[in-house]
Write a structure and sequence with these properties.
4-stranded antiparallel sheet; Rossmann fold; Isoleucyl-tRNA Synthetase, domain 2; 25 strands; 5-stranded parallel sheet; 3 domains; alpha/beta; single chain
Length: 711
């Protein structure tokens, strides 16, 4: 019998074992589906949501990647050619923001460095943190194919991104135009509605006279950009005014700032379904330049766009004496002037959701901007059809309903960004005529300069299932099977990958999408390192091992949001000890025979034999069903209960008597070995290190690893 910690009475030591085991996995080459045994034929492909190169592993990564690894290992052990595609996302605005913050600590701004040197700094950041994240995922036990590791700014990936942009332009789905967009005044770029976060704000609702009407607004400072008034077409109160131009009093923008006065302006009254007759008085001012809903009204009614707020969030020269101040600074002055001139009727307290930049937290300012947009009508319809036809299924089902609701109310996608880190648009402007441009992967002949804008991060991420892969890999490993991800990127990423796959590859990229819960603090708060409420999975791995950490995460991953409870860590440690000690009992109390397989030779000789063999067979059936239905926690708890109670508490106790009986000894040994082997195989996807280590100590003919043991 070979020397092994199990036979020497030593406790299981994850700090020693886990690095050695992972090294053996990598050296085996079995993470690469092309190097799996030849009997592996059918593909199983799972896509890793590429972590941003903005920091280190957090609990969300630990949950997400453990779930994926469970499926990768489960299907690999069932003879599938498993490809778990890993990578990292350049994360445009997010990475630029964290690098800017890091430079600021050193007293440096990106503008002092200039674009070229700043981008070099970001690449340095990527090398540091990208390598860190990969190392951390390996510590967690992730069996991804690292030989196919991609980064969304790799040369091969970038070429596919450029081709996609040019493709959309050639098909007439990509256009350049002036539209009102969500603008971050701090980051200096446009954002899509999916890159915003909202927080409840206690503010005021201002009721203002507009000729025969009184209307309510939360933003009196935008009144200088009003180009119409709007009512709901079904609102009987205001039907007589629709399509009429009325004269109203407004604040005079000329003269002395300390002397408020009035002037007359004319506004058209339009009827539009976007108006909520229950809000305020049912009449709203339409400011197409500074509200996305108002921009839509303006488009439908061909209203002019009057921009009065600039990209820094300040009122511009169009507002005369009120110019130069930020909107929040000048609001009180404008309200006081309306009071003095009689325009203000009343003020009421009001609560609403305020849009913030998801990256830096600054308040969003809608402004008109010339950007690049993708027409979404046809692409959204393709995605919607894929859901409705069952080509793609999102679980839990409520998230599919969320995706469908977004697709039904979709706006054209703003894909250009005014930052420095990212894929530069393959757009070339004629140097002496900036209105003339060419969309091309290569610089055209003549005096052209490349666009300063970069693409939205999610444009490149939408191509993740195939971009940057070799032509051979695209043929062999597209489409895939499964995507596991968080709920906050269902629309940002999942839906966009579906229409990108259909548009460029003619097939949906995956069939199943599983949305897992969010890990919260024990009292239900969002985990945040900056707020001091984060929990670092790496500390758990360091102190208790990856298996214990994985166990604790999956034990609590019931599908709902997880209120993190450290008692699951304790439970995981106890179970590892139970598994180790039970395995020691089996391997030290039995002879070194060939490990039994599940064949007809396994015949029960006693009632205890019959019960354990029946129980483990039923367990395998339930485990298959649970994992194929993404019931990870239920699967783990079921195996845990079987091993602790049915095997250890019941059968091991019965086996002690049976091993002393010459008539039952040999058969009992076979069953002990077989049940332990089956238990290790069922547990391996969840706790791969300790199960692989125990498997290595079991007597068997071949030197194959548990990770490819057929179950």
């Amino acid at each position: 019998m070979r020397k092994h910690a199990l036979f020497e009475g030593k406790p299981y030591d994850p700090k020693t074992v886990e690095p050695e085991i992972y090294k053996k996995w990598e050296e085996s080459g079995f993470f690469d589906p092309d190097k799996l045994p030849e009997n592996s034929k059918e593909n199983y492909i799972i896509y890793m949501p590429p972590p941003n190169v903005t920091g280190s592993l957090h609990m969300g990564h630990a949950l997400d990647n453990t779930l994926q690894d469970i499926l990768a290992r489960y299907y690999r052990m069932r003879g599938r050619r498993v490809l778990w595609l890993p990578g990292m996302d350049h994360a445009g605005i997010s990475t630029q923001y964290v690098v800017e913050k890091d430079l600021k600590k050193k007293g440096i701004s990106r503008f002092e460095l200039g674009r070229k040197k700043f981008v070099e700094k970001v690449w340095e950041w990527k090398e540091q943190y990208g390598n860190t994240i990969v190392g951390q995922l390996k510590k967690l036990g992730c069996s991804a194919d690292w030989s196919r590791l991609r980064f969304t700014m790799d040369d091969a990936y970038a070429k596919d991104v450029m081709r996609a942009f040019v493709h959309y332009h050639k098909k007439g789905l990509l256009y350049r135009g002036l539209r009102t967009v969500n603008w971050c005044t701090r980051c200096g770029t446009t954002l899509s509605e999916l890159e915003l976060e909202y927080e409840e704000e206690k503010t005021s609702l201002y009721y203002i006279k507009y000729g025969p009407f009184t209307l309510a607004t939360t933003r009196p400072e935008t009144k200088f950009g009003d180009t119409a008034l709007a009512v709901n077409p079904k609102d009987e109160r205001y039907k007589k005014y629709v399509e009429k131009t009325i004269e109203v009093d407004s604040l005079d923008i000329d003269g002395d700032l300390d002397t408020p006065a009035l002037r007359k302006i004319k506004l058209l009254v339009v009827a539009d379904e976007a108006v909520d007759p229950e809000f305020g008085t049912g009449v709203v001012k339409v400011t197409p330049a500074h509200d996305l809903v108002d921009f839509g009204i303006g488009e439908r009614h061909k209203l002019p766009i009057v921009q009065v707020i600039d990209e820094y969030g300040r009122l511009n020269e169009r507002v005369g004496k009120y110019a130069g101040k930020r909107t929040t600074e000048i609001r009180e002055k404008i309200v006081n002037d309306m009071k003095k001139t009689g325009l203000l009727v009343k003020i009421e307290p009001y609560e609403h959701r305020l849009a913030k930049c998801a990256r830096c937290g600054h308040t969003i300012e809608p402004i008109p901007s010339t950007q690049w947009f993708i027409k979404m009508d046809r692409l959204a319809k393709m995605t919607e059809d894929a859901f409705l036809k069952g080509e793609v299924k999102i679980q839990p089902e409520n998230f599919q309903k969320t995706a469908l609701a977004w697709l039904e109310n979709i706006r054209d996608w703003t894909v250009s960004r005014q930052i420095w880190w990212g894929h530069r648009l393959p757009v070339w402007f004629e140097k002496n005529n900036p209105e003339k441009y060419v969309v091309s992967e290569e610089k055209p002949d003549g005096d052209y300069v490349q666009s300063e804008d970069v693409l939205d991060t999610w444009f490149s991420s939408a191509l993740w299932p195939f971009a940057g892969l070799s032509e051979g890999d695209q043929k062999k490993y597209y489409p895939g099977n499964t995507l596991i991800t968080a709920r906050d990127i269902v629309n940002l990423w999942v839906s966009r990958m579906i229409f990108s796959g259909l548009e460029f590859k003619g097939e949906v990229p995956f069939r199943d999408v599983f949305i897992h819960g969010t890990i919260l603090t024990k009292d239900g708060k969002r985990m945040s390192k900056s707020l001091g409420t984060g929990t670092d999975p790496l500390k758990y791995i360091e102190h208790h091992g990856a298996d214990v950490t994985r166990f604790a995460v999956i034990w609590q991953a019931t599908g709902q949001d997880i209120r993190w409870d450290e008692t699951a860590i304790t439970g995981g440690k106890k179970f590892m000890n139970k598994l180790w000690n039970a395995s020691r009992f089996v391997l030290t109390k039995t002879s070194e025979q060939k490990t039994a397989k599940w064949t007809s030779e396994l015949q029960p000789g006693t009632d205890a034999d019959k019960k354990i063999l029946s129980s483990v067979a039923e367990l395998k059936t339930r485990t298959d069903k649970n994992l194929e239905n993404f019931e990870f926690s239920a699967a783990l708890k079921d195996i845990y209960d079987f091993f602790w109670h049915d095997f250890c508490d019941a059968y091991l106790e019965a086996s002690k008597r049976q091993l002393e009986n010459g008539k039952t000894r040999e058969n009992t040994e076979k069953i002990l070995h077989a049940v332990l082997l089956r238990s290790l195989a069922l547990l391996h996807p969840f706790i791969p290190f300790v199960t692989e280590e125990i498997y290595a100590a079991m007597p068997h003919k071949t030197g194959e690893m548990l990770m490819i043991h057929r179950v």
